[in-house]
């Protein structure tokens, strides 16, 4: 899809929300903790997930493995209450500032980023 310079200017400098979904219909969504500001997880949103998030105030994503909408915490109860949504310069990525109701990672860790790469080894980070 070809966009005009005017569309690019509106998207990058304007005040209208014009999300730029990729060829698979997805945006990258980085989730950070509203208190600690640490990165909790990275996921993807399609139009349906973005609309559900905005309508409910709870973080919804597109599950690529299940190919469906999912509300974070729908089975664990560890939902993410959205406090704010920041939009990057070309509107193809979002940062969701959230208040987590419990651990964010399916492993039980507070964050999905619980290890650090040192050489060829993954070293656990303290939560």
UniProtKB/TrEMBL annotation:
Family: In the C-terminal section; belongs to the PRA-PH family. In the N-terminal section; belongs to the PRA-CH family.
Catalytic activity: 1-(5-phospho-beta-D-ribosyl)-ATP + H2O = 1-(5-phospho-beta-D-ribosyl)-5'-AMP + diphosphate + H(+); 1-(5-phospho-beta-D-ribosyl)-5'-AMP + H2O = 1-(5-phospho-beta-D-ribosyl)-5-[(5-phospho-beta-D-ribosylamino)methylideneamino]imidazole-4-carboxamide
SUPFAM superfamilies: HisI-like (SSF141734)
Protein name stated in the entry: Histidine biosynthesis bifunctional protein HisIE
Short name of one Pfam family: PRA-CH
Lineage: Bacteria, Pseudomonadati, Pseudomonadota, Alphaproteobacteria, Sphingomonadales
Any one GO MF annotation of this record: phosphoribosyl-AMP cyclohydrolase activity
GO process terms (BP): L-histidine biosynthetic process
NCBIfam families in the record: PRK00051.1 (NF000768)
Pathway linked to the protein: Amino-acid biosynthesis; L-histidine biosynthesis; L-histidine from 5-phospho-alpha-D-ribose 1-diphosphate: step 3/9; Amino-acid biosynthesis; L-histidine biosynthesis; L-histidine from 5-phospho-alpha-D-ribose 1-diphosphate: step 2/9
InterPro entries hit by this protein: PRib_AMP_CycHydrolase_dom (IPR002496), PRib_AMP_CycHydrolase_sf (IPR038019)
Protein's organism: Pontixanthobacter gangjinensis
PANTHER family cross-referenced by the UniProt entry: HISTIDINE BIOSYNTHESIS BIFUNCTIONAL PROTEIN, HISTIDINE BIOSYNTHESIS BIFUNCTIONAL PROTEIN HIS7
Enzyme Commission code: 3.5.4.19, 3.6.1.31
Keywords: Amino-acid biosynthesis, Histidine biosynthesis, Hydrolase
Domain Phosphoribosyl-AMP cyclohydrolase residue range list: 41-114
